[in-house]
Amino acid sequence: MSDRTPLARWHGHATVSITDRGTTILTDPILTDRVAHLRRRRGPNPLGTPLLPDAVVLSHLHADHTHLPSLRLIGGDVPILVPTGAVGQVSGLRAFGDRLIEVSPGDEVRIGGVLVRAVPAEHDGRRWPRGPHRVRALGYVIEGEGRTYFAGDTALYGSMSDWIPECDLALIPVGGWGPSLGPGHLDPAAAVRAAVAVGARTAIPVHFGTLWPMGFDSVRPDRFYGPGAEFVRRMAEAGLTATELRPGESS
């Protein structure tokens, strides 16, 4: 495993710019201050700094991960990796035409100086909470000088360490966007177990402290601010390394 940790800039929620070998991959972009009933409560709007990704990866179809208005703000011919079957479930994706690359676990795509590999995630991959499960949620491993694991949204699953035996940097979800956390997610304690499972040399907590339901400012504020620091503390207790970033900061 390389001693070089890729550069990661956390833009808030699950949106991270990962730069390795001069290639930048942007994850699950939320580039607006609102997503339906959710609003950005912390950190600058990502569009305040230039965003020039070489590719975008989408982990699953929930609106806080596949956000069509944000995707439209990414110009040019930037390719967008999506779970296989996504276009059939989200008609608005068709507008991106040949930019879309559908992938399933194990598929690899070369983007500039890095190799992007899709891996499983244990999460509801549907766009809406009803209907058949036709699209799988994914995570991604980006390999260049280092190896970065972007988990998307996931719970722990038995073969996680088989798919990701080691990584230099793990971007681990530790919270949500509301006062409760449903199935298919990691809380800080479970996120530490995930970091151990994937052999993370270092980790950054994501998917917390950014979006919150409108009108819920005073409801369970510990669930908004607390998960990142709790994850870092639990990692340290386990003898592991993690860094909490504020939205807009880089590792």
TrEMBL record:
Domain Metallo-beta-lactamase: 12-185
Pfam family, one: Lactamase_B_2
SUPFAM superfamilies xref list: Metallo-hydrolase/oxidoreductase
Name assigned to this protein: MBL fold metallo-hydrolase
Organism: Rhodococcus oryzae
